[in-house]
Amino acid sequence: MSDSKLNAFENAKAQIDTAYNLYSPDNTQAGKLAIVKNPKRILEITIPVKMDSWETKVFTAFRAQHNDARGPFKGGIRFHQDVDRDEVKALSTWMTFKCAVIDIPLGGGKWWIIVNPKELSEWELERLSRWYVRQIYKYIGPDSDVPAPDVNTTPQIMAWMMDEYSTLVGKYSPGSFTGKPLTSGWSKWRGQATAQGGVYVLEKILQLRDDTLDGKTLCIQGAWNAGLTMAALMVDKWATVIGISDSGGGIYNKDGLDIKSLQELKKNRKSVTDYSGDFEKLDAKEVLYKECDVLIPAALENQITDENADKVQAKLIMELANGPITPEADEILEKNKIDVIPDILANAGWVMVSYFEWVQNDMNFYWEEDEIQEKLKKKIVEAAVNVGETAKKYDTTYRAWAFIVAMDRIFSAMKDRGEV
Ligand code: GLU
Prior knowledge:
42% helix, Rossmann fold, binds glutamic acid, 7-stranded mixed β-sheet, 12 strands
């Protein structure tokens, strides 16, 4: 397999092309297509930080501001030591399409700081977060670019950043970052948003296929917040989680796994392989190949590729992670009649609640948990119906249709604003 096949940005562009060829078979929107196949702007930022040792260390960060035709750039800040500029571009592209498919008035972007946060003390992490904002505050803001947490970034980090931003602009600006702690304007009911959004989408898509979650078996790759919460929500739905994995490996039991003890293990920072019940031990990727009704990749990008797609035995896949399946793998899965509910729809619950947080911050009036849940359900189910029914009608994949729904909205906004 060549590396280009694992280049997330090439993959994102291929997904856009597939959708575009169906959307505009006569190629009448080539200008708009060219625009969405590139970020509007990429910033590379240098962040000097005084470490606990009093030495100054310099960190590098990237921001891809992909598209803001429908509203401010929106997307997470990732703290990770391995970064590839193209990955940042891909993640920003998916954010634009994600916000458009669920029809929230925001664009897409992604931030990335090259750092292994585990090597930093709490103070160093706070200084890095604050100095980062000092370097970027002119390029962000509630009306222009609104970051949120992502891999290795937390509500506490968002609160420090929001505080620094507010100090620099001289006014309290809670809407400058989302995913903040409740005390600093975190929208209630945030922790479950990704998984709960995924459950609403899955139930609706199954319903459109004259099916239900009742009695279904699930395998989940990834036991962090999204995957584990998804597993916990399945208990009430009479569905059974039979396989789950984390970076330490996977576990499988065809009769089901006890989710409460898995939650306990993860709370104590242990691996799922420390599970005490009966199980077959798997390596981290094997969970993807077990026979089950629904497979949920909830870990990282590029997990199902042309090298292993043929091994997948699930009947349906729902992507809770961003970009876990490559376009080549998509083709193999389609040939094998395994449908995929795409990330831009399935994991959009998080950014939907970010949107609600941003709106509440702006009006300084806060909704109760049930109102937020109801609003999320209404909007995400609408999006699922839109994608599911049309994919069925036009006999295409859920991914292609999700991209088409989003593309139509992004192109219309660009046209109305006179961009092209
Ligand atoms: N990490 C989130 C995502 O990938 C960020 C979205 C947001 O801005 O809330 O969906």
